[in-house]
Amino acid sequence: MSLNSVVESVTSRIIERSKTSRRRYLTLMERNREKGADRSRLTCGNLAHAVAASSAADKQELVFEQRPNLGIITTYNDMLSAHEPYGRYPEQMKVFAREVGATAQVAGGAPAMCDGVTQGQEGMDLSLFSRDVIAQSTAVGLSHAMYDGVALLGICDKIVPGLLMGALRFGHLPGMLIPSGPMTSGLPNKEKVRVRQLYVQGKIGKDELMKAEMASYHSEGTCTFYGTANTNQMMAEFLGLMMPDSSFIPVDTPLRQAMTRAGVHRLVEISNKGKDPRPMAEVVNEKAIVNAIVGLMATGGSTNHTIHIPAVARAAGIIVNWEDFSDLSAVVPTLCKVYPSGPSDVNKFNEVGGLPTVIAELSDAGLLHRDAPTISENGLEDYAKRALMGNDKNVVYTPAKPSSDPEILRGAKEPFHPVGGIQLLQGNLGRGVYKSSAVADNLLTIEAPARVFQSQTAVKEAQKAGELHRDVVVVVIGQGPRGNGMPELHNLIPSLGVELDQGFKVALVTDGRLSGASGKVPAVVHVGPEAQVDGPLAKVRDGDVIRVCARTGKLEALVDEKEWAARTPTKPHRATAGTGRELFALMREVAPSAEEGASPMLFMMDRELEEIGDDVEKGTEV
Ligand SMILES: O=C(O)C(=O)C[C@H](O)[C@H](O)COP(=O)(O)O
Question: What sign does the CA torsion over 317, 359, 245, 599 have?
Fold first, then answer.
């Protein structure tokens, strides 16, 4: 089928909008290639430092034979279950690289936060900004000019976007994300939620809750719900930056190992010294970004990606906004119901067809740019194939099959919803993002009096005191990037879920974020402009009737216009000290809105690049 006209027109307007910034980006990457980070330009002293600790064989290849050298950026730590397997990866990857006459070095490490560990804690206030730290760490690693290609080891929430934002500033280099796979399914996610709600109601004790949590989070590997980490994997495949069908192969299996090996071999091939160089700057173009947004809509992925995709795009000089998301959402059907949108987890989703089936369906329906460049040889069509173990322990690919379970994954002709799983809501309260894929039909419109809070703790206390035992729109302000760094407020979900289950109409409206794992509670998140900069949420008062309607796309306070205009915005209380939060003051000071990607680093970068304009050399030579 030919390309959908809305996909086409949204892409055209992104290209038009990004004309100047993209041109400047590509010019700068070209300049990097010609004069920047490359081993051939290092002095003997520089190079000797870089290989001092290498084996004699690697020294020979790196210095005298000029073989391809891969730089590995690792975000390993063994507290984060998804990243624990990466401890073993660099040594294995070096062996895989040698098999094809290349070398690999660990170029650097970057931090990796677990949002599961920091959920509801002060540490969560560092989470979104850690993405910039990861991007900068990636740049520091790659600044050593030793590499012909980049392997990015990261999976979880801020880590993949951060790695991409950093690596894309070295976009003259080819790059690939290498995932390590989900953990086996433990206690079903739905059951975990049920037990949590029993705890909130005081019906079970802490020991029982702890048992359930540990039965859910029980081993190495990525969490099995379709939250931000797994949406990252989807995004990376749709961007063409990961090996096809590599997202959801279970951790620590022969196929996972074969996939990592195939990935390293392919990365050598596409490296700047390989036979088919594919620089990241060319792979991540406007079409690839649109494909990633289409993937987000069709799978009902994490709301966090309405912040991450704009930020990743911006790092490549591409400007997207929520209007683009909204227009694409109107034509992309929801094909998946994976937890929190349905009861099944990513392992089950993968068994019944997984991403290859989704990509095949969307591609056949004309909803994807089939000509977007990818790291895989034949472009996007390779991503519509299933990866299997071949007889010789190599990965082999076969065409994707239709879904084997229509309760989890459907074709584009008989979707769960004719529109995408994420919507834009707007009105006199600003504009925010709403994940409709997980919300029951009867809750898509909620009109109820507001209760305004300035912290998660205050909401939980009010719920405990029975104050939310009614129809209510819970408004939590001061949670945006400039307020307190924009934490996820997922800890509110059990408390609000209890009220919802009792038949009350409850919604959440906030300038903060929610976890990708949040589902059934209707929530408008990332509302901007945020209260900290006097956005309209700061004008809401207890008792104002708020309308949250996913059917009409409205987010409104039904307050007399004159009265509304006369109100003074509340200055939210800011908790900005303790647990290292004070170190991030600079970031809070300059953070742009969520819609712009909420990256202080990119905001300041753009400001400086604007001064340089088209004269790239002006910014590089003294
Ligand atoms: O996906 C995201 O955005 C996350 O933040 C993942 C976190 O690990 C969740 O907050 C865990 O949530 P539960 O499933 O309720 O335990």
Answer: positive
Secondary structure (H, E, C), 459-525: HHHHHHCCCCCCCEEEEECCCCCCCCCCCECCCHHHHHHHHHHCCCCEEEEECCECCCCCCCCCEEE
Query: What angle do helix axes 286-299 and 322-329 make, rounded to 10 degrees?
Result: 60
Query: Residue 36 has what pLDDT?
Result: 73
Ligand 1 probe mutation, 119, 155, 159, most atoms within 8 A of CB = 119
Q: Which residues contact 374 (CB under 8 A, 6 or more apart)?
A: 239, 240, 241, 283, 288, 380, 382, 383
SS3 sequence, 162-192?
HHHHHHHHHCCCCEEECCCCECCCCCCHHHH
Q: What is the pLDDT of residue 469?
A: 96
Find out whether 4 and 418 touch, Cβ atoms under 8 Å: no
Which structure tokens are listed for 155? 């999976």
Cα–Cα distance, 320 to 425 (Å, whole number): 17
Q: What is the ipTM of this complex?
A: 0.98
Is residue 560 helix, strand or coil?
coil
Q: How far apart (Å, rounded) are the C-alpha atoms in residues 89 and 177?
A: 13
Ligand 1 binding pocket (C-beta < 6 A) is 115-116, 119, 157, 223, 225, 227-229, 302, 304, 488, 490, 515-517
Mean pLDDT by 10 residues, the chain (622 residues): 96 98 97 84 94 92 91 98 98 97 97 96 97 98 96 98 98 98 93 90 94 96 97 98 98 97 98 97 98 97 97 98 97 96 95 98 98 97 97 94 98 96 95 92 96 96 96 98 97 93 96 91 97 98 98 97 96 95 98 97 97 85 65
- The residue among 397, 138, 176 whose CA lies nearest residue 266 is 176
Distance 161 CA to ligand 1 centre (A): 17
Would you state the structure tokens that stand for residue 418, as one six-digit string? 């004719």
Position 601 scores a pLDDT of 98
Answer yes or no: are the C-beta atoms of 147 and 107 closer than 8 Å.
yes
Distances (CA, A) of 88 to 47, 164, 207, 291: 27, 22, 34, 32
What's the 515 CA to ligand 1 centre distance in angstroms?
5
Nearest CA owner, ligand 1 atom 15: 517
Angle at 86 (CA atoms; ends 80, 92), nearest 5 degrees: 165
In angstroms, the CA 380 to CA 400 distance is 13
The predicted structure's pLDDT at residue 38: 79
| pLDDT given for residue 408 in this prediction | 98
3-class DSSP assignment, residue 383: helix
* Closest ligand 1 atom number to CA of residue 514: 3
Q: Quote the CA–CA distance of 450 and 448 in Å, as a whole number.
A: 6
CA 347 to chain centre: 19
Number of alpha carbons in the 13 Å side-chain half-sphere of residue 493: 25
pLDDT, residue 622, reads: 59
Ligand 1 atom with the smallest distance to the CA of 213 is 16
All residues at 6 or more sequence positions from 268 whose CB lies less than 8 Å from its CB, including other chains: 68, 70, 97, 100, 101, 102, 149, 274
Which one of 490, 520, 521 would you pick to mutate in the ligand 1 pocket, going by the greatest count of ligand atoms within 8 A of its CB?
490
Is the backbone peptide bond immediately before 68 cis, with ω within 30 degrees of 0? no
